[in-house]
From TrEMBL:
PROSITE patterns: FN3. It comes from the Eukaryota. This is Fibronectin type-III domain-containing protein. Residues 1-18 form the signal peptide. Residues 111-212 form the Fibronectin type-III domain. It comes from Aromia moschata.
Length: 308
């Protein structure tokens, strides 16, 4: 007797197929996606599998469909570090589909991929602020979980470092005329450190803050002053002089030998007229120019004062 058997959507003729032809493959085992984008699995052993159907979908619902006779599939064409769903289904010679296996994974950059920062820029936004900006090669930026920013300056034996999630960093403790070295290291997901990229930068010069008067002694024909200037820790630009401008009476530049300690600056102005008011504007001169000035009215003593 001749009859037709319907099974799993496939028409079988009783006179043409045996029991083994209806074998339903078990799911593939050890389904993994390697660093180089190769999908690997182990074939089921309960049936003779003819080929495998591969479906790949992303979160936007885009579907890729492929058939392969191998137990590997090259998925390196997929973008790096984007989550995809991979489904592998074994199929026998008689088009009997087995049970599907699924994994959720992403293609990660391999050891030969360029994982180094390929662009770096520093902008000085004001006297103490630096803005750092960097970029990664196309395709791998999605893979970066964090950036480690390392800062060395001419005074530090131990670097200052911080971890950021964006490709920018604002450094707010910069010192004019300081030499810096910045390091940027990408940290990938899963945790894997990329190479540290180093960049040297000299912070532009800036004038100092206005000087601060700490003492004054007025004589009959002279004036003694003591001034403090901005500390070396806050501005390393070399100081060359204090300028005392009381035009049209006098305009004096008092030389300064700059040192990291920057002690008080003492100077005396001689050959003044007795009992005379002078209005002096005092400023600091460094490699970047003249600081804001401080206006100081002073009056010499009269000739008779010294005998009182």
């Amino acid at each position: 007797m001749f009859f037709v058997l319907l099974f799993a959507g496939i028409t079988f003729m009783s006179g043409a197929f045996g029991q083994s032809d209806l074998c339903v493959p078990d799911p593939v085992q050890n389904l993994t996606l390697s660093y180089n984008g190769t999908l690997n699995w182990t074939a089921p052993i309960n049936c003779n599998v003819s080929f495998y159907v591969i479906h790949i979908t992303n979160q936007d619902g885009i579907v890729f469909h492929y058939d392969t006779e191998n137990v590997t599939f090259n998925a390196s064409f997929l973008p790096y570090c984007e989550i995809f769903q991979f489904e592998v289904t074994p199929v026998t010679l008689y088009n009997v589909q087995g049970i599907s296996s699924n994994i959720s994974s992403q293609v990660l950059p391999g050891p030969s991929e360029n994982l180094t920062v390929n662009y770096f820029n520093v902008t000085a936004s004001n006297k103490t602020h630096l803005s750092l900006l960097w970029e990664m090669p196309d395709g791998v930026e999605k893979c970066v979980r964090l950036f480690r920013v390392v800062v060395w300056d001419a005074d530090r034996n131990t670097p200052y470092d911080v971890y950021v999630t964006e490709n920018t960093f604002n450094f707010t403790d910069a010192v004019p005329c300081m030499d810096y070295e910045f390091g940027i290291r990408p940290i990938f997901d899963p945790s894997e450190d990329g190479p540290l990229s180093l960049y040297n930068y000299s912070f532009p010069g800036s004038v100092t803050t206005a000087p601060f008067l700490t003492a004054i002694l007025e004589g009959v024909t002279s004036i003694n002053m003591t001034w403090m200037v901005e500390s070396y820790d806050r501005n390393r630009c070399n100081i060359s002089a204090l300028n005392i401008d009381a035009s049209p009476n006098f305009n004096v530049s008092h030389p300064v030998q700059d040192t990291p300690e920057r002690p008080p600056v003492h100077f005396e102005i001689l050959n003044l007229e007795p009992n005379t008011v002078y209005v002096a504007r005092v400023s600091v001169v460094n490699t970047a120019g003249f600081s804001p000035s401080v206006t100081v009215p002073v009056q010499t003593l009269s000739n008779t004062t010294m005998f009182d």
